[in-house]
Each structure stands twice: as C-alpha cells, then as structure tokens.
Amino acid sequence: MRGPATDEVLIRRWHQVQDRIDAADAVGILLGGGADLKYLTDYEAMPLERITALVGRATAGIELPTLIVPELEEARVRPRPSVYAVRTWGDTTDSATTIASALPRRGRIMVSDNLWALHVLGLQRHAPNLEFVPISEAIGGLRSIKNSEERDALAIVGALADKVVAQIQHGEIPLLGRTEAEIANDIADRLIAVGHDTVEFVIVASGPNSASPHHDPGLRTVRPGEVVLFDFGGRFEGFCSDTTRCVHTGPASAEVLAAYEVLATAQEAAVQAAQPGRPLAEVDLAARRVINAAGYGDYFIHRVGHGIGAEIHEHPYVTELNTAPVQVGHAFSIEPGIYIPDEWGIRLEDIVVIEADGARHCNHSNRALVEV
Length: 372
Ligand code: ZN
Ligand code: ZN
Ligand code: ZN
Fold this sequence. Notes:
Elements: H1 7-23, E1 28-31, H2 35-41, E2 53-57, E3 66-70, E4 85-89, H3 95-102, E5 107-111, H4 117-126, E6 130-134, H5 136-143, H6 148-169, H7 180-193, E7 198-206, E8 227-236, E9 239-240, E10 243-248, H8 254-273, H9 280-293, E11 305-307, E12 314-318, E13 331-334, E14 337-340, E15 344-347, E16 350-355, E17 358-361, E18 370-371
Parallel strand pairs: 1-5, 3-4, 5-6, 10-18
Antiparallel strand pairs: 1-2, 2-3, 7-8, 8-9, 8-10, 11-12, 13-16, 14-15, 16-17
C-alpha cells in the first residue's frame, strides 16, 4: 500500500518548485485546489467556489509555503508545520485580501491552470502590481517524472483496467441489443469490482458513433456487424488508468481489418520511438507516418498521447509540436486513432512508462480487433 507522502518528500518537492520559480524569473506561486496542490501538500481541497490556495515565494526569506483555507475547512487540514503554514479566511471576509497579504507586492506570480478566473480577477484588483502567468510548464514538468514506485502504481492500476477489457473481449459483457449507456454503466460497476477506488470516465461508442473520439455513451443500441470502441479509466491509490480497445460484433469488413492493421503498426512504431532522449514529437510522428503512408492521415485528428498520473491528462503531451525529450520516469498514453465520419472509428490505447531502456507497457490486454 502507498501511504501518504512524507514530510521529507513534500519538502523536497517544494524546494524543486522554488528553483523553478527562480528559473522562470517569478517571485511566487499561487495554486488553486487540485493535483498540483495535492502534490505539494498531500491535502485534497474541496473543489468549490470557496478558494483553497497554496501561496509560496521563491526565496524572499519565507521558506515555507502557506496553505490558505476557508475557516470552516481548517479542521480537515493536517497540521504539517515543517511543510506549510496554515492561514484561514472567514466567510464574511474577502479571500483575496488574505491571499494578497501572503504574496509579494510586485513581480510575476505563477498560477495553476485550474485557478478560477473569479479568484484571479479578484486578486488583480487587490494587487495591481502583480503579473500572473501560468505555472503549467514548471509544475507539470515536475509531476511528469514518476519515480519507480509511482511507475509501479501505474502498472498496477493499468492491470485493473485490463481485467475489464478481458471481460469485454471474452464476451462476458453482453453488447448486442443493449444501449451504449447501459453498457457504460455495467463497465463502471466492473471497474470498481476489479479494484479501482473510483471511475474516472467510460466511453462506449458503437457503429458510426465510434468515429467521434470522445463520444458520450447514449441511447444507441449495439447491432451486429459493427465496431464498438471502449475507452475507460479509474483511479487506484491516487493513480489513473486509461485504456482503449475496439471489438467487432461479428466479422469485420476487409476495409476495417486493413485499417486496424495500420493502427496497430502505428502504435507499435510509437512505442518503439519512446526512448529516453528522443523528442516527444518523434513518438507522435512515428505513429503518424504509418497512418499517413496508408492514406488515413486526414482521419487521425488528435495527438498521439498525453501524460497520466494523479490526473488522467497531464504533462507531458505527446504531440508533433512538443520537441522536449522523452525522459526516464515519464508516463503517457500512446493512442493513435482513425475516424471515418459517419462510418466507423478505431483507436488503440496503452499507457507506457519510460525506463532507461525504453517504454514499458502498463496495459497487457489483447491488442487485436477481437470479434465478439
Ligand atoms: Zn481522449
Ligand atoms: Zn483513453
Ligand atoms: Zn488517453
């Protein structure tokens, strides 16, 4: 079992962030709730309109960051005096006053991507000499490197999702005559039954709906002779799974089979390209070249992958524009897709973690287009 982060781990992370603040010519950070705040404090804030924030300075004599919480939530916060100071704001006061008083008076402040515009705009009125810039590159960069324990956690949660994939591929989950929404509910229950703590999302897209990459499972009934695309993930002990497999109800056409062969070849090419030191863009391009060469380039309409960890989507983003290098400890999806509008769509998604000798799969379910 993975316990809560120790004070030592949190302090080390904070010092790394302070270095990044310095390097970005900023004077402080302001994080709203969410994965970044949890990464630095191990505290999970309530995602409501009352702001919880972590405020910290690069140096300026203030060593520890300050966790600013609504007064009524103070009792939820575990005191960790060697990691952070705690300050509260009351329901009848303006939270911006409390936050502004913990920030420097002027300079560049790095704010988390998910800080509400409501709060940033309020602070801008209180502290007109502060410049707010996004922190995503700095902290996303830190969170994107997983240690070996975190990489193992991703393999463990990946194996849980694989169990549900196997149930689909073995025909244990009835498809024909059921709606996408019914099947999605069934899968959600099974994600929990195999051991996930929570379900993050379930996509079930049948027939022409499979051509919509983020289809919302609806009232369409699965019929014989079509693609059914499944993409789902859950969370176990703080780490996320995310995998995509397609099945075919009855025999697939020669066209779909040929396209699936291209897709599987493209995915394998991307996995092979995911070597430490090579550009992330090369991972995307390795898959894209295979799909382009087969004439399906116009139908591969998204990046090949995204980082994963405490969040389903996080840094690094594996796009043809991201020239940053693949690093040992990165964890990301490799999920090429081919989508023919109004006809069919296919995607194949595995999570990999990067070790010194290349990509290690976190998913091991059958990668073929299984006929059910
Ligand atoms: Zn997606
Ligand atoms: Zn997915
Ligand atoms: Zn994904």
